[in-house]
Please model this.
Amino acid sequence: MAQKVKKQEEETSGAYPKIIDRRFHQLRFNMDDNKVEAIVVTYLPNIRYLTNFSGSSAFLFVTADEIHFFTDDRYEEQIKTELYPLPNLHTHITRDVWSYIVDNEIFSKVQTLGFEADKMAYAEAVEIRNKVRPIKFKPVTNLVERFTQPKAPEELEYIKDACKIAEDVYEKMLAFIQPGMSEIEVATEIAYQTRKLGSEGDPFDIIVVSGARGSLVHGQPSTKKIKKGEIVLMDFGAKVHGFCSDITRSICIGKPTKDQKAVYQIVYDAKKAAMDAIRPGMNGKLIDAIARNMIAKAGYGEYFQHSLGHGIGLVTHESPIITFRLEDQIVPEDSVLAIEPGIYLPEKFGIRVEDNIFITRNGGVYLTNAPSELVSI
Model:
């Protein structure tokens, strides 16, 4: 295949979110901090955050004054209208990126090239290092993610749309679920309805578990039949322009028991307390503790073992991670979080309640709202 290069100028038109320029400015500042003259971004969600490219094959190289975007011939037409019109953007079409770079001496003035050490396999890094010598191939961690946590207004609108789809599908499921249906039937209907309402696909594998299987935190839908008196836990989302929503709803088939109602209320109250307390700059461990301490005080601490939440965006689970296990997860302004406490009682039932929240300087703005009491159908 012939290799092609061109400077991307007039083929892409229109503006792009203002935050993109800020991301590149921060990225270049990070390059200076790490003493590298150029960096390569290989993780596709990070490439999309920076360029809007949605395909499955790309490399992005950033220097102090240029941006080099590589993809293969499958996307030659797509990038003409999809890539942001970034300053000094050069596009390259090739299926052998590293040989192309060496043969064309693209980085002849670069002594050290940084790469996403936490995203690239060791064997791949060694192979690339051998190809680009004498350029030093330097590992850098958290190269891009810290700058993509704050969302542009345009990106937030996509997330809001994805949240709206998820909430609308939940309402449809209240009218759909009947005793005797299998968990797989319910999960299939969720997938169908989210697509019907405009989702591009499932942002993650849909979870539908019922009865005693509800204690499986990430249980996969099975052929088990849903029975009266059981809790059904549904964890799903939607995707709009690549941006995700992620909600969990727990409902009861028939009249709930006192224990089921009480556990739901504990989980809901813990979620609400944590969400109401969030402010920009807070440590995720402190947010986690708000909900975890409430659940523990109610006597269920040992039955809530996973993290309280996580960031959402182009990836369903992205930084910051809201967990008791990490000390360094700081929540930035304009980030979007999913908060999801749960209680899982072996051989009985599991309840998780998950909502999405946008973090402003004055606190959180709810993007989804779970029922405050356990819903029965």
